[in-house]
Amino acid sequence: MAGFKAYRKDIQGESYEWSNFEYKLYTSRLNAGVSSGEKNLLKVFMFIITTIILIGLITSSVARQLKRKKSAVKFSGSDTHRVLDENSLTIPKGIYFDKTHTWAFLEANGMVKIGIDDFLQHITGKISRIKMKSPGKKVKKGEQILSIIQNGKQLNLYSPVSGTIVEQNEALDSDSSSLNYSPYNDGWVYRIEPSNWSRESQLLFMADKHRDFIVKEFARLKDFLIKALRPDTGNYAQAIMQDGGEIRDGVLSELGPEIWEDFQTDFIDPSRQLWFYEIV
């Protein structure tokens, strides 16, 4: 490098002039050191980016698994065939229950929201479709108000109160799954303007009495299944035998339409008739 002189000191502190070769070698080493540092910085940067991407992928995978599990839980009663008894059911306070396995809830504005109870959706298993009446229709207590359907098999249910339908849960038209996983919240069926609430509500009962009623319903259900199915066939064992003869969840789901028809006439309808005659 013309006109440029560089000096270095030896161990004893004496100064010496750099030779061109020594200076070039020294600067090349400095440049190599800088490049190595940059490479190390780049490696750290790439490691951080890779770690962030991996964390994102893991988080996404965990979220998908949790979503699948949540979906599976929605219909665990129908799909896993657990033992079903009164302790398996949700019986919320503040709701009125009818013997035909519908419920009624008086809202602050005086409207009554109604739906099906947890017992019935556990017995039927996954409900695939629902038939509803249109808003504006007038109904009487004990009158057919909706039908629940599972793969062509159907049950007709009765209104717990009299009045005029002001709203139906339109979400059930496209997806009736909430009748199973959330029968008292997302799975409500109608809002009704009641015409005789003060009297008819006295014929309904709330959580504690409903639980006692459900215990008797399980005994009645066992009697129904014993009569409806032949004990010496595989159908009987498949429908009832679970952990020592207990009823299993979704007991009607694998039984044919003739059993559903018997369940309608021998199990649901008698309760409706009893209440109907009490208020005439």
Give a quick rundown of the structure.
With 280 residues, the protein is of the alpha+beta class. 46% of the residues lie in helices and 17% in strands.
Question: How would you describe the overall organization of this protein?
Answer:
It is built from nine helices and eleven strands. The longest helix has 55 residues, at 20-74. It has helices at 20-74, 76-79, 118-124, 171-174, 178-181, 197-200, 207-228, 234-240, 257-279; strands at residues 7-9, 15-17, 96-97, 102-106, 112-116, 129-132, 138-139, 144-150, 153-158, 163-168, 190-194. The termini are far apart. A hairpin with a 5-residue loop joins strand 4 and strand 5. It folds into two domains: 16-73; 86-279, OB fold (Dihydrolipoamide Acetyltransferase, E2P) (Beta Barrel). It is an alpha+beta fold. Helices cover 46% and strands 17% of the residues.
Count up the helices.
Answer: 9
Q: What's the CATH class label of the largest domain?
A: Mainly Beta
List the helices and strands in order: EEHHEEEHEEEEEHHEHHHH
Beta-strand percent range? 15-25%
* CATH architecture designation of the largest domain: Beta Barrel
What's the alpha carbon Rg, rounded to whole Å? 36 Å
Question: Residue share in helices?
Answer: 40-55%
Largest sheet: 6 strands, antiparallel
Shape: elongated
